[in-house]
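Field: COMPLEX_INPUT
Field: COMPONENT_COUNT = three
Field: RESIDUE_TOTAL = 1259
Field: MODE = joint
Values follow.
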Amino acid sequence: MIRESKLIRLLSLVFAFALVAAACGSDGEESSDAGTTETTAASDDGGTETTAASDDGGEPMAGGEIVLGVEQWPECTNPVTSCANASWTQWSSTTHVLPRLMELDVANTHVASPALADAPTVDNGGIAANDDGTFTLTFNMNPDAVWSDGNPITSTDVKFTWQAKVNTTGTLQTAGYEKIVDVDDSDPLVAVITFSENYAPWPDLFGGTTDFLYPAASLPTWDPADPSTADMADIWNEGITISGGPWITESWTTEQHILVPNASYWVEDRMPLVDRVVMVPREDSDTEVASLQSGEIFAAFPQGFPGAKDRLVSPIETSVGLGTFMEGLWVNQLAPGRNFEITQNLRQAVAYSLDRQAIADAAIGTIVDSPTVLNCTGWNPSFGDWCDDTDYAKYVQDQAKVDELLTADGWTRPDANGLWQKDGQDLVLQWNTVAGNLRRENVQAVVVEMTRPFGIGWEIINYDAGELFSNRLPTLDYGPVALFANSTSPDPSVVALYDIDGVPSEENGFSGQNNGWNFDQNISDLAFAIDLEVDPVARLELVREAGDALSEYVPWIPLYLLPNITAWRGDILAGPVGDYANSANGGFANMYDWSLAG
Amino acid sequence: MSLDTANRKVVLSVKDLHTDIKTENGVVHAVDGVSFDLHNNEVLAIVGESGCGKSVTALSMLKLLPKRVSKITQGSVMLGDLDLTKVSDRGMRKIRGKRIAMIFQDALTGLNPVHRVGDQIAEMILIHEDVTKRQAHQQAIRLLDQVGIPNASERADRYVHEFSGGMRQRAMIALAMALEPEVLIADEPTTALDVTVQAQVLEVLLEVKERIGSSIILITHDLGVVAGMADRVLVMYAGRIIEEQSANGLYHNPMHPYAWGLLNAMPRVDEVLSDHLASIPGAPPSLIEPPKGCRFASRCPMAEPVCEEVYPEVIRVARSSVACHFADRPDWGRALWNAEVMS
Amino acid sequence: MLRYILRRIAVTIPILLGISLLIFVSARQISSPEGQLTLNPRIPPEAKAAYIEALGLDRPWYEQYLTWLGNFVTGDFGVSLVKNGQEVWPIVQSALANTLLLAVVSIAISLLLGVILGTVAAVRRNSIFDIVATFGAFVAFSVPVFLSGLLLQLIFSVQLGWLPTAGIYSPGQQGFDLVDRVEHLVLPGTALALQLIAVYSRFMRASMLEVLEADYIRTARSKGLSELRVISQHGVRTALIPVVTRAAIDIGLIVGGLIVTERVFQYPGMGLLFLDSLFAGDYPILLAVTMIVVLSVFIMNLVADLLYAVLDPRIRFA
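Field: COMPLEX_OUTPUT
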């Protein structure tokens, strides 16, 4: 979730003044330095754009301590309960200490993790759709994989993880696990997982983007025959005490998290280079930048904040990732505040009235050098091949299209400079976003001017984040248009977004996340088909088909991704620090490869 | 009570004292050439309406007026052979309390409300004398006992608001007499008190004077107090002394029309006079630019053109003096004032 | 005296209840733990519903409130909604200790400097010093903490490298270390003290000016005391009374009022806890924080009154 407030906006506004004041005390040498040595290079993994000063850090050295800033301190470190819902729980803790089955590589593609001997495929028999409709995955465990207590990582741990995921009090991310009917752990090195039906997003179970393996030994009272005993709610809330990753938590408090290398880790090339990593909270981005400048923290992974480009300068180096949150105009077709039907024609007409590049420039132009327009409604262009970047590319400003679409829909424009009208109603859309969010309010200001010549007007009503996301979104009491960001995952599953039965309503207790944007049966069916198709090639075809359908239907209008930034002190840190700026596992994912500059 | 001052030693001699006070409206010549001698063991009263300069005269002697707004522009204050106007601040600290002590009008505001009464007395003893805290405290209790405060050792630990009006003033006297100063300046010491208590406090003051052998300058507008206490009286008007007499002399034979007026307005000796003073018609002149003639002329029933023009010469008659053009006209005043009041 | 204290405590109880209700209703309105889950596609509706039920968030709001209240009056602050069942009290206790340390140290230093500045300004009224102090106080008071805090960080941490920007210990520090702790107190303490010194020096100046006019100051001078002694023993001692009582009230207020300072300096106190639990919709923590703040305001007001009586013998409680 994005957490912003008026406070942050005010802080940003005064920062310019603060900088001027501080510049008076600076010797000027630094600023000229920054201008001359900076080079900009796009890295080859597609997702990140690195702005790095020339490597003046000297030879890396082994050992020492690294200090990292964490933008949102986890409420607790439990990997199963609500605490795991926060990205930073994973980025600051779980990723570094727990093993996975499948994992994401630097390009966010699912590959076998070091806990596996190999990745299951149809060809090696690891993936099997059975005649009785069930679906079986067979994972071959790596015999070298061990927990930090010396116990091997086995299929029993997989079984325990499944039960814990489903039975832990307060568990939340159970999607997929409830489809599992059995995990056969008779061979410790082979985990055979049986699902009730095909489940294509399986790489995200027991690993992938947000999930991990838990050691069965962590709960001595666990009885495999009684799944309800697999309740992890009461352990690991203040630090995960065991490790199956490169690091092990030495201590975790609300003020700092200390990680040291896990001596039992079996992966040679992921053994940490430094002796210790200390993570400390830096929730305010101005303070985070100041701490980087003062050298108290060596690296941070801030969400793109306005002005980031100008403020993260030498000796701070940056690597900017496209981002994992997609921001767009989410359309609620059932909005109580609508004065007319939000038809497909109308949605397309709005899309044709927008210069989305100009919007992206206004929104994230102070964060990245060349903002990229998002053309997919659910797939992240930097995650695999799922996003067909041409889906929404046709939506550029086009007066003729707008006229044609609206006229066909019964709209008239009596005054060629005025608003479209139908049944005595002006074409004015209520538009909500988070009050006080500078970026989003900027976008609103830009769009209001932008669509005026096209005869489309806006009524802007903004709410606090809590009001908008907790109260209005789940009850469909917003819009017809809202501007906010939604997460993306490396797996192309979009069922949650477009399930036609997932529209929150009185009857289903306002559950489901199709918050008014899809009422098309075909798209809903395609979304389910994508989850059932376990063959990657066939699956990609379904995704493409869904992408085309969505670009016609226009459930919402994608605008841009919110960039992530890895920012670090080039004069203190050495190694591939910025490589994971675009990783779903966070910018610190490869910190085992980081070292102190000599 | 009349004393033969001629044979007594002069302890304090004020010569031609001028004190200016800066105000928003201009510089007030609050004390404008005051001269007098204070003799050993004498009670010298200075009387006059509020604003006539009597308190400023007293504060000037001790240099207690705020420097920011006031200045002694001329004259001398001789304590023995020491000219106080020329003494440094540090030097003055050794004079204050030790050689000249003051008793202020209202002990409720004149004593610190948040310090114990005994401590305030002991504090002064401590800074002037080489004694221990304990000795100073014992001394304070003794002094409180001497001024007639019952249960002094317990009272010494109380705060001033816990004292009755008379007790407060006794405590103030105890403070002033603590170091047996040569001069006690009592500025309206009984004005805030009930009439019955006044007499007791004045009695204490006289006892103290006798015990420590000091002289008293009694500043008051209450002629009743003067009658009971003073040996000699200075009558001040608009920054100057207009008449000096023995107390007896003033009562029986006031020479200046203003002194006549004061006495006349006082029906009985033991009554408070404050209200009656105002019954002399008119108000004193501004002292920012005082008139060049007699300052009482505008209110004087017998003023003649010369009064407006020329400041009267000070005429000395025996041991008295008066500044009036018509001081040589015997008994003119009483009749005149009476006529005025009758009509 | 005891009766007076009891009476004051009795008055606070209904106010405390009213405020708790108000905070509860607005906290539930503004944010909620389930709000954080709205857009996560990995959370099936059933899991979310079970979570909401487990936290009791599906019950009517008055039921939730009464449950909370029932626990609260028996001294049970309950458990956090989002920290996976952690007890509220230890969390709040640690934040309270941090904030109190910051508040008490800042106020003590501010009081000392404010009193000195105010006294000198009053004694030398209208002097250059007085004018500069007046202007300085105006500036210090007007500059908000998020600006002064940033400036302090940029000057003392980034430019000069003397002091840490944030936190209460250096990263990696485990256990108590006085020097490290103090170093981390300096900047937040200064940001806070700048404003407090401005307030106290103004307050002291006004109070001192009044005292300097008092008769007993003249009496003190007539006793032959040095000017320093007159000012310090008789002037400051009395003029201090309203300033000190004001500072006591400030301690009560500051316990809840350091949201910006604590955020800017990542100082884990009550303000930061309040902000975090407000965002997270963690109403048990939010309510505990609020109740403690309200209580501390009441207690410190009471302390201020009692302090007044101790410092000023003229005041007694009936």
